[in-house]
């Protein structure tokens, strides 16, 4: 089904052809693609089975956040297919399924427990049944098998001090880093994707705009690390002594962990996508609007041929327009149910079944507040989620700033402006507490 | 597949399970999480917490949505060998 691949656009980095194996089957792919994109293009939508009911799962968030695409890669379990670059000769296996994710006999649990399996009461009495059941469940439980043994390199943990650390290189993070660097601060910008830009790359001139902003950062002496994720904010020094916020931010590059001590922290982490609240909402083929746009723009892979839409999140209109432009048929109306076997086969709209192979959802975005919460920043309800309480770019914690969609900014211009304000404020704060 | 509405995809927690737990007395997000196990899988609540809060607000009322769950570091999986590395002097 190679026809799912489109002409590569400017944000697409399609390289030389490679081949890898997926549960023994050869899959043709291109360098620069992720496993997730290559498998989607090859029509392989079932990437794993769920932990309890063994329901089929596939790409949902497509940015390494959800856990619906965990596979075993070259002997390492629980690797996220959606953010793992393909390499020639890779051996990819599905896990948590017998015999394979495509056809998993343990899927019988989904049929037996049609409504749900209540682990607090099921098989707890009489005692002998509980004893047997516990043994069976312990054998079946867990996520994947332990890794193949091999010698491990243990890279030293590095340390670094900067004036301003910016987390996330979407439009607001890029604008923040550029403004902070031009405000004469030493700046480190970390981005977990393989290039900067994030949702800016979906805009018609987005690649050029992202690269221009990145150039402003580096021209002013700032540094950018891609494939680097900030995974925690620690307010102690490891010896039991408290540190003032933002404390130590731990970031992971592909090579090592770096402890970053920053005078000011700009959190521009954006949001997580959330599935729609409908029956069948976890079927392969249900994915976030951003996830679909990542497939389309970053990989030149058509996410589906018949697309239904749920919700009106920040990227809903863009996804609708770009998918239609790429040749997908838009299923009109608001779905109330998703149905299918090993993937989406259709949706129910106005009590009528309509054929579909893709359901694009948005509208219940979760601001990505993990680091902010760990810094101690105050959060308050915003819609169904929590968002930081901000005054301009400042959070309730001195030296910690929030910019972009994590702080409720909508639209590209607003996010760019919010980023610039946060970068200026962070640079000013760093100067005021400087040496 | 059966038409389940899965709120927490990591731990396979359905909307029915959450609503029953709320009626059984788990009327804040943290209790609901501890009872049903939502948000405790490999994604650590990134994908499900907003849906869980939405259900809680529907069942209990807007005041129930004020709380959150605690996001502990590491927020992303980190290979143990990276953490076992020699600390820089």
Main traits of this protein?
heterodimer, A: 435 residues, alpha/beta, seven-stranded mixed beta sheet, 9 helices, B: 89 residues, mainly alpha, two-stranded antiparallel ribbon, 2 strands
Can you give a write-up of this model?
The complex is a heterodimer of chains A (435) and B (89). Chain A is of the alpha/beta class. Helix content of chain A is 23%, strand content 26%. Chain A has helices at 35-41, 108-112, 127-140, 171-182, 206-219, 289-299, 316-325, 370-375, 412-432; strands at residues 17-22, 25-30, 48-49, 56-57, 70-73, 76-80, 91-93, 158-167, 187-190, 223-225, 229-234, 248-252, 257-267, 271-272, 286-288, 306-310, 329-331, 335-340, 344-349, 352-355, 358-361, 366-367, 379-382, 385-388, 400-402. In chain A, strands 8, 9, 10, 11, 12, 13 and 25 form a 7-stranded mixed sheet that branches. A 5-stranded mixed sheet of chain A has the order 2-1-7-5-6, with helices on one face. A 4-stranded parallel sheet of chain A has the order 15-21-16-17. In chain A, α4 (171-182) packs parallel to α5, α4 (171-182) packs parallel to α9 (412-432) and α6 (289-299) packs across α7 (316-325). Chain A is globular. A two-stranded antiparallel ribbon of chain B has the order 1-2. With 89 residues, chain B is mostly helical. In chain B, α1 (15-23) crosses α3. Chain B is 37% helix and 6% strand. The interface between A and B is large, with 75 and 52 residues.
